[in-house]
Hints:
The complex is a heterodimer.
Chain A: E1 7-14, H1 25-40, E2 49-53, H2 68-74, E3 81-84, H3 90-103, E4 110-116, H4 127-134, H5 145-160, H6 164-178, H7 192-197, E5 200-202, E6 205-206, E7 216-224, H8 225-231, E8 236-245, H9 264-277, H10 282-285, E9 288-290, H11 296-305, H12 314-319, H13 336-340, H14 344-359, E10 373-380, E11 385-392
Parallel strand pairs in A: 2-3, 2-4, 9-10
Antiparallel strand pairs in A: 1-7, 1-8, 4-7, 5-6, 8-11, 10-11
Chain B: E1 9-17, H1 30-43, E2 51-55, H2 67-73, E3 81-85, H3 91-102, E4 106-112, E5 115-122, E6 127-136, E7 142-143, E8 152-153, H4 156-167, E9 176-178, H5 182-191, H6 207-214, E10 220-226, E11 229-237, H7 241-253, H8 275-280, H9 282-286, E12 289-293, E13 299-300, E14 315-319, E15 323-332, E16 341-348, E17 353-357, E18 369-378, E19 385-391
Parallel strand pairs in B: 2-3, 2-4, 9-10
Antiparallel strand pairs in B: 1-5, 1-6, 4-5, 6-11, 7-8, 10-11, 12-13, 12-14, 15-16, 15-18, 16-17, 18-19
Helix pairs in contact in B: 1-2
Amino acid sequence: MPIAGEVAIVGAYATAFGVHHDRGYLDLLAEAATGALADAGISLDRVESAWLGTAEPGLTGLVGDAGTAVAEAIGFAPRPVTRVANFCCTGHEAARCAALDVASGEHRLVLAIGAEKMRDVPSRGSLVARTVNLTHPTIAKGRTAPGQFALLANRYMAEHGVARETLARVSVKNHEHATRNPKAHFRKPVTVEEVLAAPVIAEPFGTLDCTPTTDGAAALLLAPVEWAREHADHYVVFRGFGLAVTNGYYSTFFDDGWDYLGFRPTREAAKIAYAQAGITNPREQLDLVECHDCFTVTELVNYEDLGLCGRGEGGPLLESGATAFGGDIPVNVSGGLQSCGHPVGATGVRMMTELTDHILGRAGERQVEGARLGVAHTLGGPGVVSAVAVIGAP
Amino acid sequence: MPAAADNGASLIDAELVLPRLSEADPDEDAVTLAAEAAMALLERTDHRPDALVLATTEPPYDEGGNVQPLAEMLGLAGDLVTFELTATDRDGLAALRLACALGSIVLVCASGRAGAVALLVGAGGVARIVPLGARAEELRDRWRLAGTKEREEADPSFVWDAGVKASAGLVDGAAAVVTPSPRIAARAERSRGGPGDPLPTYLGAAHAPARLVLGLEAPQAILAAAGGLAEAVRVEPGHGAAAVAARAREVLERPRVEGAPRSIDWSGIDPYTSGPRSWRERGQDLRLEGARCGSCGRLVFPYPARCPKCGSGDLVTERLARSGVVVTETRDHAFPMSRSTQMAVVELDGGARFYGQVVPSGSVSIGQRVRLVPRRLHTGGGAVQYFWKVSDADRG
C-alpha cells in the first residue's frame, strides 16, 4: 500500500534543541525514542523495527554511524534498525523509510528517529570545517553551507529587487515565533537592526541570517492507519510524501540550467506530495508550514517553490504578514531552523512532531487554531535534494 | 625569413605576463605564470609545439619536476619532449639556445615569481635568434645549499670583477646585460652602450628573454650571466617582429596597482587528497576540460559520467572557454582560508559554467566580464593542487 492515507503517526516527541554539553548523542537519541513511545503509550518490546537518521557521525567519533546506535541507546537488539542519510533531508528520510516499512506490510510498529550531536566539537572541527576539508579537492573548493545559499541570495536580491532588510525580517519573524517554543535553541526576539549588524558570515548573511549549530533529536512511532484507528489514543496521518533530487551534488553549482532563484527539487517533491494529498491550492488548503529556513533567503524561495506564492513573490508574501503567527498561512511557528537550530538528522522529524502537536491541538502557546493540514519541508546539500511531507488529521 | 640554419632558429611569437600588483599573488608560482603567458601565445597560433622547455630558478617543486603540470595546463601533455632548466637565472637564455638546437617547434617558458615570458621558436618566425658564446666556471654569486632555507650571496664587487667581466668577451659592442643584481647589470650595460632596462622589477630566469622580446624593434645582443654561467644571443628582427615587441610593451605599460598582494592564510585548510584522483581527473583540473554531449549538444563541467541533461554516454572532451560573465557571487567569511574568500559562478563564453574562488587580489560583481586563470588551490598531501580561479584582471 502507499504511504499517503495509509500510514499514521501514533507517537511523536522532540528533545529540547540547543547546546547539550551534559548529554551525548546516545542520550539524546534515547530521550527522543522513549518520548515517542510514551506519547503513543506503547512499550518498547512491541516495536518491530527502527530507522535512524544521522547526517554526520564524524562529529561524534562515528557514534551513530550505523543503526546499531539505536540498539545501544534503548536496548533494541536484535530487531532490524538501519541508519539513513540524505544531506539535510536526513530526518525526512528516516521517517520516509519507516513509513515505507509500515506501508510494505513488513512491520507494523516502526520507530523513525533523527538525531545529531553537533556541539561536541569546537568550530574548527565543525560541520563547515569538516565539509571544507573532506569534499572534492578541486571542484567547488571554497564552498561552505552559508556560502552556497549566499550565491542564491545575491542573485535573488539582484533579480527581484528584494531589499536586504526583507531577508532580515525572516529572521525577526522566526525568532519572534520561538519565544513561544520552550524547546527552541534561541528564544530571544531580534530586530532588523540587530540582524543587519550581526557579524558577517557569507555576504549578505550575518550570523542572525543563519541557523545555529545545535544538538537535538526527535522521534516518531509509525503504524498503519488501520491499526491506529483501532488502538491509538491519538494519531495523525501522512497525506503525501515526496522526495526529489537533481543530477549531482556540487556539480549543481555548474548547472547552466539553474537560475539561482529557487530549488527545483522542492518543486518536484511538492508536486508529488500535493498530488497524493489532493492539494491544488496550497495557500488555501494548508493550515501551517514548517520549511527549511537554514538561511533567511531560503524561506523566501521555499514560499515560492512550495506554491504559497508565485516566483519572485516571496518577499511581498513575508512583508504582508501572512506567514507570521496569526497570519493566514503561518510558516515556522516553531521558530524554524533559524531559532530551533538544525541538528541535521533531527530537523525533518522535529518538523513532523510540530505538525502532529498542532493537528492534535496540543501545541500550547503557539497553537495554530483549528490546524488540520500541514507541510514539513527540508532541503539538502546545495539544494540538490528535497523532501515534502503533508500531514493531516485522521 | 629563412628556416633554421647555421646554428640559428627564429622566434615565431612571444608573450609577456606581469602581475597586476608589484608582485604576484601568493597562489601564483613559476608554473602558473608560465602557463598564463604560454596559453595566450598558443591561443593565437596554429603551431603546435613538440617540445617544451621550462626555465626557472623558483620551481614549485625542488624534486619531482615542474614542467608536467605546465604541459597539462597548455594541453600539450602526452607525446612531448620536455626540458627543465633550474640552475641560475641565465637559464632563460640557455633555454633559447636549446630551442634553437632542437630544430622543431619549441615552446620556451621562462618564469619567476614576478613575471613570465613564453616564446615560440621554430622555422619561419619573425626574428632570427643566433646563439653566440657561452661560459661555465665555478663561481658562486647567489646560491642555496640543498636542505637549507637561507640563500647566500657573494660580495657585489667580487661578482662584478670575476663574473661580469669574465663573460664580457661573449658579445662585441652594445648589449643588454642581465644578472641577478639589477644594479650590476645596469652598470655593465651602461659601460658598453646598451639600451637600458625598461622592466620595473627583476623577473629571474624570465628577465633576459623579456629583454629580448621588448627589444625586438631593432637588432640587439643580450648577455645573461649568473653563478659563473653565461649565455649570449644575437637577435635579428624581420617583418612582424615590431608587433611582437609592441604587444609586450603594452603589457609593460599597463597600469599596475601599487602595494603588495593580499596574503593567503592556508592554515585552516587540511584537504582530503588522493594521488590516483588527481591523476585520473587531471584533464578536468589542469586542462579545464568538460564534456560535449554527442546527443543533446550540451557542454558540461565538471566532466560527468553521463550527460546530466539527457543521460547519454556519448561524450567528447572539450576545453572550456576561459572567459565569461559572473552569474552570482558571495564573499565567504566562513571558509577557513584567510579572512574571507570570494566565490563566483561564471557563465563561460562557449557554454558551461564555472564555480570557484576569485583570485585573492580580485573582486567581482554580478554581470562583470572575467577570466579563468590557473592558480594554486592548496598544497594538501604535500603536493601542489593547481586549479582555476576567477580573475577580474585584464592580462592577456
